[in-house]
Design brief:
By secondary structure, this protein is of the alpha+beta class. It has helices at about 15-40, 45-55, 75-85, 90-105, 110-125, 245-265, 280-310, 320-345, 355-360, 370-385; strands at about 130, 150-155, 155-165, 175-180, 185-195, 200, 215-225, 230. The protein has three domains: about 5-125, Butyryl-Coa Dehydrogenase, subunit A, domain 1 (Orthogonal Bundle); about 130-230, Butyryl-CoA Dehydrogenase, subunit A, domain 2, CATH 2.40.110; about 240-385, Butyryl-CoA Dehydrogenase, subunit A, domain 3. This is Acyl-CoA dehydrogenase.
């Protein structure tokens, strides 16, 4: 296998994965050239998603039976990391689609006919999916809040009314899943909703980082969902492995920051030195710290993804490890970007350089699921429940 010795390529295992990475690297380089403008505008990267569709990226996790590539979790992590190296917003946004499809593929929580129809549409037309659960009053759905969005029976299905926040990909989706409370049953359920004139996108997304994810509010004004589009099954418990698309994204951002700082250290030579700052012990120490953070986090991320792939019967028991991978990777990624900025110095604050965007984007990982206190509690519970 002919791969270079760059650190980012360390976890490529085969010629097939190398080909996948080469394809995504081209996309990442293209997206990196657009990232600054889209970040300043806070605009959704429609052009990037057209390129992803053309490259076949949107069908990577779809089952082969329905025309997809059916890649593993390990491969998804590797490719999402590489895409985020170019543009974190695009990677995080498309990661929700890739991850959700992987989750549906392994859990089979959707009726097969519904899942098959979606998969074929995705392969043929580039259709994407995401699940909208967050609400202003309930916060993150991972914390167990009851949705204020309601679903009431109607002829042939349900009428859904409510407002969802943090609705990533909302500008481009023609269908999505929402969680809603059913008063008649005193129960919650999920519904696959198609975008009609009863669905309004309110452009509220104006944030510090990850400005291009299109995570606006979605308002449902009695949107109709056919009876067949109610998701009644929780499916098999896959441990939530698909959520590793999140730390993979933040690791990609950290790697981009690391490489920028390394190039700076190799080339920047102030006039009081006879050689570039790479020769300074203080700079070497900071580089060593970056490497320590990155190598620790990446080894955990890839080992956990590989275990999830190879141990399907143990996926439920892997939840503490999956959460730990998110916790370690996200926090280490933040430290890496901070160290990169210390190496580059005051110019790292310039909006003409990518480091300040990396700094803003990488912090968003703290607010993606699973949340830190939940992860820590899960780890504690796992320890205390040992016999």
């Amino acid at each position: 296998m002919n791969k270079d010795h760059r650190f980012i390529n360390q976890y490529i295992r085969s010629e097939q994965e190398l080909a996948q990475v080469d394809m995504v690297s081209e996309l990442a380089a293209l997206f990196a050239g657009r990232a600054a403008k889209q970040d300043r505008e806070g605009s959704f990267p429609f052009e990037n998603f057209a390129d992803l569709k053309e490259a076949g990226y949107l069908k990577l996790t779809i089952p082969k039976a329905y025309g997809g590539d059916e890649i593993s979790l390990y491969e998804m992590v590797m490719l999402q990391e590489r895409l985020a190296y170019g543009d974190g917003s695009t990677a995080l946004a498309v990661g929700w689609h890739l991850g959700q499809v992987l989750h549906l593929r392994t859990s089979r929580k959707w009726p097969e006919e519904l899942f098959a129809a979606f998969c074929r549409s995705s392969v043929e037309h580039g259709t994407m999916i995401n699940s909208f659960a967050s609400e202003a009053a309930t916060g993150s759905p991972s914390r167990g809040g009851k949705p204020e969005t309601t679903a009431v029976p109607a002829e042939g299905g349900w009428l859904i009314t409510g407002r969802k926040t943090f609705s990533t990909l909302s500008p481009i989706l023609d269908r999505f899943v929402v969680t809603a409370y059913i008063p008649d049953e005193d129960a919650m359920s999920e519904f696959l909703v198609e975008r009609t004139d009863k669905v309004e996108i309110v452009e509220t997304w104006d944030t510090l980082g990850m400005r291009g994810t299109g995570s606006h509010d979605v308002v449902l004004n009695g949107a109709f969902a056919p009876a067949a589009n109610r998701i009644t099954s929780k499916g098999a418990d896959d441990g939530g492995g698909w959520l590793l698309h999140i730390p993979a994204c933040y690791m990609g951002i950290a790697l981009a920051a690391r490489d920028y700082a390394l190039n700076f250290a190799r080339t920047y030579q102030p006039n009081n030195l006879n050689e570039p700052i790479r020769s300074l012990p203080s700079v070497q120490h900071q580089i060593g710290q970056m490497e320590s953070e990155l190598r620790t986090a990446r080894s955990l991320l890839y080992a956990t993804a590989d275990r999830w792939d190879k141990e399907p019967a143990s996926r439920t028991e892997l939840k503490p490890d999956l959460g730990l991978a998110k916790y370690i990777v996200t926090n280490h990624a933040i430290k890496v970007v901070d160290l990169a900025m210390r190496i580059v110095g005051g110019t790292s604050l310039s909006r003409n350089l990518p480091l300040e965007r990396y700094y803003r984007d990488v912090r968003a990982g703290l607010h993606n699921p699973p949340m830190e206190n939940t992860i820590i509690q899960t780890l504690a519970a796992a320890a205390l429940n040992e016999e």
